[in-house]
Amino acid sequence: MNLTGRVVVITGGAGGIGAALARRFAAEGAEALVLADLDVDAARAVAAGIGPAASAVGLDVTDEEQVRALVADTERRYGRIDVFCANAGVTTGGGVEVDDAGWDRAWRVNVLSHVYAARAVLPAMVERGSGYLLHTCSAAGVLTAVGDAAYTATKHAAVGFAEWLSITYRDQGIRVSALCPQGVDTPMLADGLAAGHLGAQVIAASGAVLTADQVADVTVAGMAEERFLILPHPEVADYARRRAEDPDGWQSGLRKLVRRLRAGASPRPH
């Protein structure tokens, strides 16, 4: 995928990875960037920093009617959507004790929002015979988010859905990538650390934290090669292999890491 001249929609575009993707896509020569976020003022600030190619809209990704309206409005304004980045995501920082509302919110933001986006954009993309879906899924979708059960479960579902889309629609001209970073210096990580979430502590202590701009650079390279799995942290591929080859050993290693962290020791990268 060459991003020059492309019309791109990015959810969760007000900050973090979404904002970094917008800046990087603009540098690649995207024709138009639509940044959608609950925090429309922050999205407008990002768009203003990019220039006239970018605009911002308010969006609740868990409301399918809002997603459909965003897609329809963008198609009316620009004639098409070439790339849809389903990037919004939430964490809970907890396990089975997280209440139903927390689990439901994680499911709706981390999974159903991807479904809503695909439903809205696929008909026109299939008719044209081209289009690109970029789903931010997290390394938690191929590994485990220690300390966050809902995030782990929903990100696994997100990767599974992205894979299903790729298998089902690639022969119709649709490309799909699952972006699966591990630790990224974003407000999500900062908020998790401030709240004392175990998973955020593991990521921060591992030393494997990238900037959002670094993630965006790797994403553009991955999209240029139309790779399904885009792994800004290449070690995630090694972890995934180890997990598949020896699931018991993998889980044992993670349990040891958690014990060290809870004891106050500095965990070694896993």
UniProtKB/TrEMBL annotation:
One of its GO terms (molecular function) is oxidoreductase activity. Pfam families: adh_short. Residues 6-182 form the Ketoreductase domain. Signal peptide: none annotated. InterPro entries: KR_dom (IPR057326), NAD(P)-bd_dom_sf (IPR036291), Sc_DH/Rdtase_CS (IPR020904), SDR_fam (IPR002347). Gene3D superfamilies: NAD(P)-binding Rossmann-like Domain. Keywords: Oxidoreductase. SUPFAM superfamilies: NAD(P)-binding Rossmann-fold domains. Belongs to the short-chain dehydrogenases/reductases (SDR) family. This is NADP-dependent 3-hydroxy acid dehydrogenase YdfG.
